[in-house]
Amino acid sequence: MTVKDSLKLRNQTGFPVYLCAKELYNEYNSLLEPYGLTYTQMIVMMYLWEVGDSSLKEASDALLLDPSTLTPILKRLEAKGYVSRERSAGDERSLIIRPTETGMKLREAASAVPGEAKKILGLTEDEEKTLRSLIYKALDNIERNKNNGSD
Known about the structure:
Layout: H1 3-6, H2 14-32, H3 39-51, E1 54-55, H4 56-63, H5 67-79, E2 83-87, E3 95-99, H6 101-109, H7 113-121, H8 125-147
Antiparallel strand pairs: 1-3, 2-3
C-alpha cells in the first residue's frame, strides 16, 4: 500500500469503528430517553446490576472510565434515585456505590433496550459474537501497548 493509499479513509480501521460506535451510541440514547438515561449511565447501571456493590475504583477499572468522569455520572444517577454512594466503613477514602431498589426496578423496565439495539446492527448472532470478540481483542492489545509504554 502506498503512503497515499494508507491515508484514505476507506483503508482505515479506526474510522468505521468510530462511525459505528457513534451511531450505535446515538441509537442507544434514543432508546434510553424514556428512562431518562444516557448510554453511559446505562452501562454504569448494567455494571452495577451485574456486580451489585462496587467501589468507585472497581467500577472505574471495569468500565475503563476515569474516576473524574465516572463521579458526575454517579451523582446524576444518585439524583434520579438509581444508585447510592457512601464511604466505606473500613476505608473512608473508598466510595461504595450500589443500585437502589428503584435502580433494580429499572433493570426490568429497561431490559428490552439491548435487544432493540442489537436489531439496529442487523448482524446474526455469530457475526455479533465475532465482532465483539475482535473488538475486545483490539481493546486488550491497546491496553497492553499502553502498559508497555508504546504509542
